[in-house]
């Protein structure tokens, strides 16, 4: 019984990554192309739009991309997520002053 529970936990851990979805704000061309109805041209257009206009606020924002219509979005909506982009670190706080370095 314990072995069965271990296998069940392992199954859910590995499948949770699948259910996470494709983050439209960080996905690569290959990740977009893995979606049904998204080929190389649409994948490239999505990334170009994202690079020019910033990250998407909702899945429906994909309609603003030339070649991506409501039917395409409806077809893949369950496989998409809109994740936030992490802010760049504050480099001023990362500077170590000479007097803070340990002596030899």
Quick tags:
mainly alpha; extended; 104 residues; DNA polymerase, domain 1
Question: How are the SSEs ordered, and which strands pair?
Answer:
Elements: H1 2-20, E1 22-23, H2 29-33, H3 40-53, H4 70-76, E2 80-81
CATH superfamily of the domain at 21-84: Photosystem II 12 kDa extrinsic protein
Number of strands: 2
Radius of gyration: 21 Å
Order of helices and strands: HEHHHE
Shape: extended
* CATH architecture name of the domain at 21-84: Orthogonal Bundle
Oligomer: single chain
Strand content: under 5%
Please estimate the helix content: 40-55%
For the termini, the CA-CA separation is 57 Å
What's the CATH topology label of the domain at 21-84? DNA polymerase, domain 1
Report what the structure shows.
- The protein has 104 residues and is mainly α.
- The protein has helices spanning 2-20, 29-33, 40-53, 70-76; strands spanning 22-23, 80-81.
- Helices cover 43% and strands 4% of the residues.
- Strands 1-2 form a two-stranded parallel ribbon.
- The protein has a domain at 21-84: DNA polymerase, domain 1, CATH 1.10.150.
- The longest helix has 19 residues, at 2-20.
- The chain is extended.
């Amino acid at each position: 019984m314990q072995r069965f529970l271990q296998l069940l936990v392992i199954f859910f851990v590995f499948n949770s990554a699948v259910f996470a979805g494709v983050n439209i704000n960080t996905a690569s061309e290959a990740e977009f192309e893995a979606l049904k109805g998204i080929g190389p041209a649409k994948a490239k257009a999505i990334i170009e739009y994202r690079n020019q206009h910033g990250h998407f606020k909702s899945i429906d924002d994909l309609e603003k991309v030339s070649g991506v219509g409501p039917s395409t979005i409806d077809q893949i909506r369950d496989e998409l997520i809109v994740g936030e982009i992490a802010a760049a670190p504050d480099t001023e706080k990362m500077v170590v002053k000479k007097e803070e370095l340990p002596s030899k």
